[in-house]
Model the fold of this input.
Amino acid sequence: LTSPPGELDLEFAVERSTLDGIDTLRSSVSALERSVDLLEAPEEIRATYRAKDSLPPPTVKQRVRDDGVVFLSLTSKGAGPFTLRVTLDGSEVINSGAAFTFTSGPAHAPKCFAYAESISTVAAGHAAALVVRCFD
Done:
């Protein structure tokens, strides 16, 4: 993005977007699997996920070089699809609805939860299985 320095009023806004522009089927299946897992999880885990879904959109920092080139830096606390909109002197720039997705990084152990139903009966000499669901 290039603009004459000091002459234009550029504003950048990031908003949470729908599934447009990303793999809709994969996202839908992933969201469905997460919902099913959360139905069986304790309330404290479900509350944590509800809080994650209400995180604010990414913040935008801009820097304009002397030649008018604008650099953007986006920082997000949550993952998901977002749209970057650019306005110039109060009007939205044509084709400025740039869609992008923040993805989760590696799991951070101190913020993870593990949940499993306990095994009530185990027969001696036979294999036992326990399913442990981990939530990041």
